[in-house]
Structure formats: C-alpha cells, structure tokens
User: Fold these one by one.
Assistant:
Number 1:
Amino acid sequence: MVNYRYLGNSGLKISEITYGNWLTHGSQVENDVASACVRAALDAGITTFDTADVYANTAAEQVLGDALKGERRESLEIFTKVYWPTGPKGPNDTGLSRKHIMESINGSLKRLDTDYVDLYQAHRFDVETPLEETMQAFADVVRQGKALYIGVSEWTADQIRDGAALAKELGFQLISSQPQYSMLWRVIEDEVVPASIETGVSQIVWSPMAQGVLSGKYLPGQPAPAGSRATDEKGGAQTISRFMNDETLTAVQNLKPVADELGLSMAQLSVAWVLQNDNVAAALVGASRPEQVAENVKASGVTIPAELMKQIDAALEDVVVRDPAKTLEGMPKKRPA
Ligand code: NDP
C-alpha cells in the first residue's frame, strides 16, 4: 500500500503517490478508462487526487467527480486549482482576482460533486492582481468551508515567502507548492525548496516521470509507441516534446542498470527518486491505463542508496536542467486571456 506524508506544516496527511488527471481525463483517454484508472488508484491505496478547472476545459473535474462518486468523502483528499482561463474566456474568467477565485471555486465544487476541496491551489502567480487581494479571497474561501487548505503552483521562492507571510497574517495555512520536478528537471532545488522549508510548505511534484520519458519507453531514433503521450495530438505530443530529443532519450537508457539493481522498473525508479527529497510530500503521477497506476504505486517506500543516487546523477549529467531562473522564465508575463 501507499505511505502517507504530512502536507507542509499541517496535520493533513496525503498519499505520497497522488493521482493526477491532466491531459488524460476528458481528453486523451475515454471516460471508462479514466474510471478504471481511478479505481486502480483507490485499490492500490491512493487517497489523494489532483485536478484543475482548466484541464480539458473543466471536463477533467467532472470526470474525476463522476469516478469518485460513492466513495467515502472523508477518506479522500481532493485537490483542484484556479488561474488559467476557462469557459467563454471573458475578461474576468482568468487569473487570481477575488471575482475569479470566488466564482471558480463554486464551479469546481459543482463539477467535483463535493462540498469542499481539501486543497485549493493558485495554478500560477497572477502578475496583474495584488497579492493581498488574492490571499484575502483564499482566506474567505477557507472561512466559507469551501477549501480546507491553500497551495500554489510554479511560484518562485520570493512569491512563496510573500504568500506564506500574508496567509499567516490572514489566519489560514499555505501548505503546498506544486512545481515540475523529476530526475531531468531539478530547478526547484536551489531556491524554491529552501524557501518552502523555511515557510512550512511541501512540494507536490508534477511530471515526476517527465511525462513518461523516464519510463524508458521512448527509444532514441525510433517512433514513439502507439497510444503513448508522444503520439497524442490533443496536446500531449506538444507538451512532452521538450524531452523528446536523442541526447535525453539516450541518457535515460543509462538508468536501466540502476533500476535493475533495485529490482524496479524505470518508471518506478523515477517516482521513487522524487520521493527521496524530504520536502516532497507527494509524487503527482498520471496514467493512461490502470496497469500503469498499479506499477507506479510500488515506488512508495523505496529507498535509493547514496551510491545509486550518484550513479543516476552521472548518467544524466549532460541533460539535467537545474537553473532556478526557469521558474520565473516559465511564468506568464500577463494574465492569460
Ligand atoms: P507523469 O510524469 O507521471 O506522466 C504520466 C504519463 O506517463 C502517463 O499519462 C502515461 O502516459 C505515462 N506513464 C505513466 N506510468 C507509466 C508506466 N508505468 N510506464 C510507461 N508509461 C507510463 O505525470 P504527468 O505529466 O501526467 O503529470 C501528473 C500530474 O501532475 C497531472 O495529472 C496534474 O495533476 C499535475 N500537473 C500539474 C501541473 C501544474 O502546472 N501544476 C502541470 C502538469 C501536470 P502515456 O501512457 O500516454 O504515454
């Protein structure tokens, strides 16, 4: 079964393997397969589920809500997010203004068919809304009982510090940061992680498998396997493209002996790797098939010895991205319309 970790400086425990439905539910996979993946997650001991209003333009929340129907609400941790535009994309259907936050949470709760979410996350930093306004709106969402805790995603170290200070002043808990983190993408290590430790914030990390690349199934110079994300023309092929070059795919194949030594698949190794970092509360793993969920949960509780961690670093040295400036570089410079 899956181990639990505390989320930030709070009493909330979450499953260290968390199931996420970006690009899959309401898009790449049919609804019956989506339900089967959620079932596989529950059967394997995953209790924490992550989605966002923007995934499949709100359809992903609906699919997840349907798939979780009938489950005991108190036994689940349901996370969603606000920021990116959805619906008719009017001037206020975006960002972290008080108006958009207060309206978005209601839409998310309806689609997820629940009275509250356990964690409500700012999907990005909104450079057009005063941070005080955003944090006051989150405080009110918490006081209304619509969200129990608040988190952020892809915020810089300074933004996390400022947000955490305001949350404290306003009397609610900012407990999580959701950044990209994997053996190939380590940009949070130098700044975001130290700021998070300082402020009582944990990481819930996305794409720990680099969208499937670290499973080793994409071979240099060969076509991508049928049905994989790299062949998904609804969005997956484009988002995975940053890793789909021969240099990266060749380096990834060097991880096979490390996985073999631990008796793990390469997919399991990649998930176990992010969980070696104590500031990571959960690896946020996606799946297009239930068997993948069953395989990936076995990464829970694995310890990778120091000499094998070094071997991983040596294998990937030339292709790892570490520059902490990437968080700010990737941030929208204005509110998306
Ligand atoms: P992963 O890196 O875990 O990639 C998941 C994909 O890899 C699956 O959909 C599947 O794709 C493939 N895969 C999974 N398991 C295996 C396996 N055992 N063997 C081979 N291939 C496998 O994570 P995601 O990129 O899906 O992101 C996870 C979650 O993170 C999202 O659902 C979302 O909740 C969150 N997220 C958050 C973001 C943010 O801005 N806050 C941004 C992006 C994601 P296939 O079979 O199609 O190849």
Number 2:
Amino acid sequence: MIGKLNHVAIVVPDLEAAVAVYRDTLGAEVSAPAPLPEHGVTTVFVSLPNTKVELLHPLGADSPIARYLERNPDGGMHHVCYEVDDIASARDSLLVAGARVLGDGEPKIGAHGKPVLFLHPKDFCGTLVELEQI
Ligand code: CO
C-alpha cells in the first residue's frame, strides 16, 4: 500500500538554528521558510537525494505543534509521511484492519497541496504516520 517516504517532519524550537544545522553543518539544500497560517506552522524543506526533511515551527496561537514543543523543548521527530496512490482506498483498508484514522477520517489538503490523512501513533509503532496521495 505505502510507497515512497515523502518526508520526515521534525519540530524545531528555533527555525533559524535548525536551518543553520541542516544547511551549514550537514551541507544540505534548504528552502526558504514558508509560513502556512492555515496549518499553524512555518515549514522549511531540506531536500535530500532520496527524500525530504520538513522542519516545522509553530505559527500563531493555535499551532497544532505547540504542545509537542512544550513536551519536547529541544524539538524532535514529529511524523513520517508515506506516499499512497489512492488515499480513500488506503484509508478504507486501514479501517478494516482496525487502524485509527485521526480527525473525521476525511482527507484534508496538506501543507503541500495534496490530500493527506494522519494515522494514530499507537497503531503504528509509536509513530504518527501521515499518508499523502501523490
Ligand atoms: Co508532513
């Protein structure tokens, strides 16, 4: 069902410092920060030859990652995103298998303009999983 690893998302307390780590220390190609007020985050993409790392920083009062940062002040890995061809059919077969889909179960348009769903970490080895239809 799942295809390529689309990205790994990391919540960071200091976006400029995180950019410096990936760009200067690790020598990666890093995008300009993109504020996404409708998602409550600012994102920076780190492009790697085979996938991406998404640096997430809270934006606005109701950021969905603000609590994560309260619990993990140094930041940390937030989710992994796998590509699927058909997100509705992936959801349906996951529900049949007993997995929990977060929210109302309907795909939303994610940070990259594609339909996404999130799966409960307790059903996936303690890791929040995002599915993105490519
Ligand atoms: Co993501």
